[in-house]
Amino acid sequence: MKxxxxxxxxxxxxKPTLFTNAIKVIISxxxxxxxxxSLSQSEALFFPLFGLVPKLVWSDRMVWxxxxxxxxxxxxxxxxxxxFVLWMFGGELERLWGKHEFLKFYFITGIGSGLVTMLxxxxxxxxIVGASGAVYGVLLAYxxxxxxxxxxxxxxxxxxxxWFVLGIGLIAFMSSFNNMSQISHMTHLSxxxxxxxxxxxxxxxxxxxxxxxxxxxxxxxxxxxxxMSRQFQVERDINRILDKINKEGFDSLTDExxxxxxxxxxxxxxxxxxx
Length: 275
What we know:
Rhomboid-like fold; two-stranded antiparallel sheet
């Protein structure tokens, strides 16, 4: 299915239901891992192994990290804010899109934002943790889908959701230039950008696989056509030389023609053996 935009955006403020299925699973898993992480008191083990460490992904092939980093958080406030925003804005989208489409959107924006962040510093040994990339993607999707919904900043100040999202995006963009911050603003910004492009042109694994198969088949056909064209030219050249031999005798051939006849005959013989 395509990601739908509300055809008649409501003017009312947003009131989320308690939990939708995908949101319930995501929040439960995140808090479960956070409790395990806290009880073990082994952040020095968890973060380098399961956080997103660009150099380790690149050099040590820890390819699971762009996925697992989404389930680790740097502290209580980090996980509380992420899960609260996900709960507040994600449930409405899940009801609109369905569980599977919502999960696909969530993980593609989360994994994609991690990969984009990683590409900006492949030698970094600083772990990136948190679901913020995916959460920012969800936040953007909500603002674009329900632009006229009212969001209350700090529970007091009413703001249209589209302006709220644009403000968050602007903060993420400006903050991405601050290399001294311990917050990965680039992950936030790239999560929103990936979410935007997904909303405009939905990502489909089946479509991607079809394009790969199509390009592969086109390449094979072109390769075979070039091979057949070369073979045809060799056969035509040999036939011309054989006609000359038939009319004027073998001694009439130049050294170059004799060499072409030998190589061409050898090439045709090998081709026929393969067939």
